[in-house]
Write a structure and sequence with these properties.
By secondary structure, the protein is mainly β. 10% of the residues lie in helices and 49% in strands. It has an 8-stranded antiparallel beta barrel. A hairpin with an 8-residue loop joins strand 3 and strand 4. The longest helix is centred in the first third of the chain and has 22 residues. It is globular and about 55 Å long.
Length: 219
């Protein structure tokens, strides 16, 4: 019986160590889906603006500051099976539905949708130090929509085709997280800003798959 118990303990430790190794790196919120949806179809609604880095037992999370109660924090974490324990004295935790090489899923609590995160490759890190938005206008072809965006200042932009019903002015936040240059907005999924080529800014978004787009600067 003792040997069986020790085998279970060692197996649990091994699984935890393997998961910890897989988690290393930076992950961005991709989409959410209802647990009863076997096809994992993304929910419609506002963008899921959040990025997390796991590094040497430290959990760093950055959320869109205009919607979240907290916008960033850093805590120690540990793994217990499929449970991510956040060691902040409040016994906070997240349960994993699955952890893969390029994605993981947090189980939604109290009927909330499951949350899918995708791993960011280092190739998506910004390769240009001269990318500016403030005071500039850009055209963007997003899926089947062509949109003109103007960045008024460091937190407000205008979208000519996706303005809210209350105001033409929308919020955005540009962050640097672990070397990734990311733009959170009220409407679009997060822009991962990669490079600048003449008047074009190369960006990616990550949902069920990675999609590449161009922001073309105009007068």
């Amino acid at each position: 019986m003792r040997k069986i118990f020790l085998a279970i303990i060692l197996s649990s430790i091994l699984v935890s160590c393997q998961s910890d190794k897989i988690l290393y790196g930076t992950w961005i919120a991709a989409y959410q889906y209802h647990p009863n949806d076997s096809l994992k179809k993304p929910n419609n609604g506002r963008p899921f603006n959040e990025v997390i880095t796991f590094d040497n037992g430290i959990y760093k999370i950055k959320s869109y500051k205009y919607w979240m109660y907290y916008d960033q924090r850093q805590e120690k974490y540990s793994l217990k099976g499929k449970r991510l324990m956040i060691e902040n004295g409040e016994n906070n935790y997240e349960d994993f539905l699955e952890v893969k090489k390029d994605s993981f899923v947090f189980i939604g609590k109290s009927g909330i949708s499951n949350s899918v995160y995708k791993k960011l490759a280092d190739s998506l890190k910004n390769k240009s130090s001269d990318i500016k938005f403030i005071g500039k206008r850009f055209i963007r072809n997003y899926k089947k929509l062509t949109d003109t965006i103007k960045f008024i200042n460091d937190s407000v932009y205008i979208s000519n085709s996706l303005a809210t019903s209350n105001s033409d002015f929308l919020k955005y936040e540009r962050i640097n997280h672990n070397g990734f240059d990311i733009l959170f907005t009220e409407i679009y999924p997060p822009f991962i800003i990669k490079n600048k080529n003449s008047q074009d800014i190369l960006i990616s978004t990550i949902g069920t798959k990675k999609e590449d787009y161009i922001l073309k600067e105009i007068e």
